[in-house]
Amino acid sequence: MDDRKLSEIYSLYSKGIYWYIYRMVKSRETAEDILHDSFVKLINFSLRNDIDHDHIKGFLYTIAHNTALTALKRGSLIRFSPIDDNARDSGGDDFTKKIEMDELNARINELLDEVDAKGRSLFIMKKELNLTYDEISEISGMPERTVRRRIKNILTDLGKKLTDLGFIDKLMIILTFLLN
Question: I need a labelling partner for 167 at 20 to 30 A (CA). Which of 47, 107, 148, 175 fits?
Fold first, then answer.
C-alpha cells in the first residue's frame, strides 16, 4: 500500500474509528493509541497480503475492535476525565433542558458501562456510528440475526433500567431516538 493510498484511507476513516474506540475505552489517550496501533497493523498486514480496498472500512473497524477488546481485557487503559468542550450556560428553559438531557445521557452511559464489552461495541456501532446490521455483522464476525437480537436486548434492558430510575417522562423520547 503506497503512502498516498494510506493517507486517503486515514483521512476517510480515522475520525469515525477514533470515536468508536473512544466510546469503548472511555479514554482519549488510549483511543489515540489504539487508533495508531490499528493503522500500524493495517500497514504490516498490507506488506504481507493484498488488501481488498472495497472492504477496507470493515477490515479497519475489525482491527480497531479487536485491539480495543484486547486492551479492555488486559486492563491496560489510561483513564482520564473527559473535558466537555461544549458546556456552556444558555440560560432559561434551554439550560434546564440541557441539564436534564446531560443527566439522562450520564445515566445512559453508566448503564452502558454495565453491558459487556462485546455488547457495548455492537451498540456503539449501531447507535453512534450508524452502521448497518450487515456491516456490524461483518466487523464483529457475528451473524446478523445475533447482532439484531443483542442490540434489541440492550435497548430493552436500558429502557427498563431508565424507567426504574425515574426517567419515564424522557424515556419515550430517548428510545424513539435510539430506535431510529
Answer: 148
